[in-house]
Amino acid sequence: MLDPSSSDESGGELPPEDEPPVQPEKPSKKSPKCEKSPGAPRTPAKKPPPPSSPAQENENEQERLQKEESERKTKLQIYVFVLRCIAYPFNAKQPTDMARRQQKLNKQQLQAVKERFQAFLRGETQIVADEAFCNAVRSYYEGFLKSERVARMVQSGGCSASDFREIFKKNIERRVRSLPEIDGLSKETVLSSWITKYDAIFKGEEDQRRPQGRMPFSAVSELILSKEQLYEMFQQILGIKKFEHQLLYNACQLDNVDEQAAQIRRELDGRLQLTERIARERKYPKFVSKDMEMMYVEELRSSINLLMANLESLPVAKDLKPKIKPKLTPMNSFLDIGDENDLPLSKSDVVLSFTLEIVIMEVQGLKSVAPNRIVYCTMEVEGGEKLQTDQAEASKPQWGTQGDFTTTHPLPVVKVKLFTESTGVLALEDKELGRVVLNPTTNGPKNAELHKMVIPKNSQDTDLKIKLAVRMDKPPNMKHSGYLYALGQRVWKRWKRRYFVLVQVSQYTFAMCSYREKKSEPQELMQLDGYTVDYSEPQPGLQGGKAFFSAVKEGDLVVFATNDEPDRMLWVQAMYRATGQSYKPVPPAQNQQQNCRGGNIQKDTPTSLLSLERAGVEELISAVPCSFDHASLFQTLQKHTLVHRMNDSFSCLGWFSPGQVFVLDEYCARYGVRGCHRHLCYLKELMEFSENNALVDPTLLHYSYAFCASHVHGNRPDGMGTVTEEEKEEFEKVRSRLLILLESQITHFRYCFPFGRPEGALKATLSLLERVLMKDITTPLPVEEMKKIVQKCLEKAALINYSQLTDYAQFEADSSQALPEKRLEDMMRLGELCMEVLQQNDEHHSEAFSWWPDVMAEHAEIFLSLYTVDMDAALAVQPQDSWDSFPLFQLLNNFLRTDPQLCNGTFHRHLQELYVPLVVRYIDLMESSIAQSVHRGFEQETWQSVKTITNNLPSVPLPKVPNLPLNLPQMPSFSTPSWMGPLCDNTLQGINLPDIFNGSATSEDLFWKLDALQIFVMDLHWPEPEFAKHLEQRLKLMASDMMEACVKRTKAAFDSKMQKSSKSTDFRVPLSVCTMFNVLMDAKKQCSKLCVIDQGQEIDKQWQQYHSKTDVLIDEAFKEMISCLVSKFAAVLDGLLSKLSRYDEGTFFSSILSFTVKAAAKYVDVPKPGMDLADTYITFVRQNQDILRDRLNDEMYTEKIFEQWYNTSMKAVCVWLTDRLDLQLHVYQLKTLIKIVKKSYRDFRLQGVLDSTLNSKNYDTIYNRLTIEEATAAVSAGDGLQGISMRDSDEEDG
């Protein structure tokens, strides 16, 4: 099965899934026995069958065994035909243009992928990612990987890593396209980066570090296969054992080109004779027309002639086997275990090393030597060194001496000699008394034995014997050895006795080697790779050997024989371990005993290799091909091939691999299988898989169905003009079955084609349905008829989808015991799931139904109508005047209004009808609540600034309205964040919050509620334009009325406050008055937002006049309040001027005051009259200016107040001076006015009053008069002004 990185760069990491995805039990369909309605009469239960007797059980077992044996024999016969097709193809080639299939994911790999994505989301990986990518991965994990439909898709065997990647790619493309453009970073770069990170998550860090293993057989089935690979594939498909294949290969002589060509010629001749006999005896199949009988004969002859022409076109070849084994490439070496198998073994590769121990014990029968003579022995291994024993007397020739030798000869020659010392003076060598020559083997005796020695001529020691032991140790790489008779086709071509050694060259390589004496290299050797060993019967004509066994391989058979049965068993067991074959040899006696019992044979070995070799092979290979029903045989072959294909590691969707297509094509051409029969069988098998929830490509179904339809209607897709009645009947059955299947798939489109996978499959299914509905191949199907069928399927699909959704959400429609809040919460969750389903349908399936967009829209409406029932029931139990259901409307409406097909559709209109009275009632109650809160709020208003309440506006709940008769609604808690967000973002953008909203608690509450209510209604996004316009106008009118009431109540409170305030210089502007100004300023600002209709709408004159009236009211109130406040300031100045009037020239009070001051000044410091008055007034002005500057929010209105205040003050002073044109100002009047005028000018200038206002005519008049008076006073009074002057250089402290 496919690992998560199913690409060419990495191999499979996870184990293949044990349970195949094919033919699972269908959860939705029940067997006919179970499909009974509740009211149907129950049939009486059948009595259990009586217990069967042992004889009957034995008979049943025999029938089962016979059936299995018959099926196995049929498979073997099919395999013979397949072998010939592969060995000598002359009609078909392996296609190279087929789309390569992706490896499929299994359940273990899906779980591993989920864990990797969970680890990434938990931050446990080293992959660096931004928040946008993490959100995309989280959405992919929650919406796709955790989906039950993905698990089904994986279980069906039609899901690959490529499908996962494509779905993620589509998701992020939609996300990235919606992101704003970033300078210097293209969206393509972002997509590429995200895909790279996705691949890293999918493969996992452990998989990337894991080394690539060798490819399993199924992993290369998509490639062009060699003959050996094809043989192995069809062994798996048909359940043929390796030894059976080897026997059949040799018996069929598949490596003999001439034999294969001759076999084809014999087959064609037999088919030609059969054709002539059919024509002669007129034994035709039943055709749909009598005229087709002669055409049938001509078609048979034509097909045979075509085969002959194809055979004739092949070049004459000498041999199919390569003389030298080619160097293996990664494509054809996937079956090899290691590099040591790449080249055949040479003799020099086999190296053995033996250790010999020779122990000489004693000599017996030594008579020819005097007892006191010295004797000793020598020992040597031929080709090696020589050793000598100690010396002993002839009367007691005993030693016990051991000599150790090493040799590379499996058959060494050991020589032991007995010597006596020569006594002659001229003797050069000692005298040899006897010798013995031994040929030890590793299987020889280990104990000491007596050996008769060869003595020289004329020796008296006729019975001279030596007792010695020769031990030859077996090296680790020598697995068995001994003498065997052997006869083979490539080695040991003569039947003779040889010494054999079974050598292990490497972990996977063994060799059977024959040796001669005194030779270290084998004379001949046979590498055991691919051989199968088994016991065999004696071969006639071979002299020597009693117990036979054989080793067989494609193109080779080697017969061995031993002299006894135990030795044969040892050899067979050793070679069985060396070959690694799956078939375990059974000794003949044991095998016969098991066969007699009948039931103890292994399941995978129905007969021994021996019996198959003796009886079965010849029967299989000599069978006449034209005597078989190849239509039936091919059906079996194609069925098993498809089962094998659907269970391999590729997401094939029913498509055969190139090698399988090649073999099936060759079989059909060579053995005359009709194309229509082939495709009908293929269709039936594919439909069987599809009905059992396996994914099958509808394009494949379409291709086979189109072929059969064209053939049945006489269009000759393969040149066959004859149509049998059986083909037509089968076609009609397939057509009816296919029609039911396609309608079921379209009905279950969300589950048969989850997330639009396989890509384009749903569209291909609709196309195939249209083709199946056509009565013939030329007349197109009426559009309306196709539309009706799709419409009917989608109606059922809506019910199925909704039922599945409610089951998934664990929603119970009749849960009448549940609380209203719980039911509403369930409907919210179910509504979200419904929206998700409709979005997925639009995203993944709408393209397939693009021919009938209204049908898909109708499906959505039916789906939503089912939701309507549950929604209406849940809303009906909600308490009266409860507003908790508004989020449900927002959820549904926000989805529906953006869908062009569903906007203002049936469900959307029903939703509006449900919520229109609710919205109207809500606004009515809110209007009443706000109105009463305004009334009671202003009655109890303290006019304290509430600048802190709105700093945390989103977290402050709306204040409840007290003492109202009804349970008036509060602002629904679900929308508080959405209301408060726009209120702060839109109104306060760019403004420093601590310096704003210094209005009263009542006004702030009013503006907040009005704004929140309007935002709430705006967030509803009411889809019907007229009602939406009505709601907006009503809310704007309500806001205007509330604004007007607020302004009037504030103006009244201002007037009352100003009437109670004093008129002396102690007067300071109260903070409550500043708050009232701020309330009007806020009202002015809020009016433009709360009382103005969107300019995009058509505004009538009446509305413009109404809004202008509110603006005018606010402006008039501002003017009156500013005039009232300035009048209060002017009254203070008038009081000061009236005090200065007492110093007017010519008055009685002036003369007395002047005299008194002058007299007193001679004795004490007398305060300057009038300076305290000036200082008090200047302090009054400055402090009130600071209060207004700090407490009023609007700069413009603050400056208006200062301008009017300055103008009024200057005018009052100017009028006062004008009234005294004929009088000279008293020095104290002059000093006071100079200080007041100069300080006022400077202070108002600092407060931002413009120079044009400051230098008014009144100021100029005052300035000129005071300057003249100052000059006059300076002449008459000297230093009476004490430095006070109108000049700018005045440095008087202020």
What does this structure look like?
- 52% of the residues lie in helices and 8% in strands.
- It is of the alpha+beta class and 1294 residues long.
- The chain has a 7-stranded antiparallel beta sheet. Strands 2, 3, 4, 6 and 7 form a 5-stranded antiparallel beta sheet that branches.
- Strand 11 and strand 12 form a beta hairpin.
Please sum up the structure shown:
This protein has 1294 residues and is of the alpha+beta class.
List the helices and strands and how they pair.
Elements: H1 54-87, H2 107-121, H3 131-145, H4 148-155, H5 161-178, H6 187-203, H7 205-209, H8 227-238, H9 242-252, H10 257-281, H11 292-313, E1 354-364, E2 374-381, E3 386-388, E4 392-393, E5 398-407, E6 414-420, E7 431-438, E8 449-452, E9 465-472, E10 478-487, E11 496-504, E12 510-515, E13 524-527, E14 532-535, E15 547-553, E16 556-562, H12 565-579, H13 588-597, H14 609-622, H15 630-646, H16 658-671, H17 675-691, H18 698-712, H19 725-747, H20 749-752, H21 761-773, H22 783-809, H23 820-845, H24 853-876, H25 886-896, H26 906-939, H27 976-987, H28 1001-1020, H29 1025-1060, H30 1071-1090, H31 1101-1140, H32 1148-1161, H33 1171-1191, H34 1195-1218, H35 1227-1246, H36 1251-1254, H37 1257-1277
Helix pairs in contact: 1-8, 1-16, 2-3, 5-6, 8-15, 9-14, 10-11, 15-16, 15-17, 17-18, 17-19, 18-19, 18-21, 19-21, 19-22, 22-23, 22-24, 23-24, 23-25, 26-28, 26-29, 27-28, 28-29, 28-30, 29-30, 29-31, 30-31, 31-34, 33-35, 34-35, 34-37, 35-37
Short descriptors:
1294 residues; disordered C terminus; disordered N terminus; five-stranded antiparallel beta sheet; alpha+beta; seven-stranded antiparallel beta sheet; 16 strands
